[in-house]
């Protein structure tokens, strides 16, 4: 892998870079890719900490090689894993469960104890004791998105603490209505555990319908954003009764919430880099980066 290296220049405390407004810098960093963040962190000492934080706070992986490299990086520098708040698997290139046992997933989750958002696109085909233990340890988790509701996916819910946002989709070719009915008890048990905290729910109608039939009097009063995919007409009345705060504007929520995702840098294989001190010159790529940084520095110099 080719590592991007930059020349580190000494700067005095009077440099404008040391006077970046705290409320402006995060907005500039949001415009940068993972590789640009790693590069910028080496141009000045004052930028190293905010760039490193932005680089490791939101992580989205799109290859198994990237996962292995990230695990090695965080195992060598555990403090970086403490920064991570969101970990997502690419929905266009799912890869996490290509190995017989989810060893790498277990290792990476252990290194992110303060994780608040977890998104897995791959169909979960095995639940190991280690995976259950590491999921139970995610006490700060608030958002859970599972992209392929296999029976094993439903089974892992028993290991996860109640979350505020839950997205549970079903894309597996081998999934059938009988499978959904066989596993509704696990989903129902988890949903009932989340009644006091759940505020956003996205779920397939095929998964929710048996829960509504089994627990016709159950309610989730705090759910205000709700999307139910392919919900049968006969189930809509039950859904409206179960989610009273969302039932009055269900159609509006369907249009507004469908593609809501957290910002996350995609860590391709060539982008997984540690924010080390640069050693050779390099110029940032992309006009947007130049325009943003130029405008920012110009404003600071005028002040």
From TrEMBL:
It comes from the Eukaryota. InterPro entries: F-box-like_dom_sf, F-box_dom. Residues 14-61 form the F-box domain. This is F-box domain-containing protein. The lineage of its organism: Eukaryota, Fungi, Dikarya, Basidiomycota, Agaricomycotina.
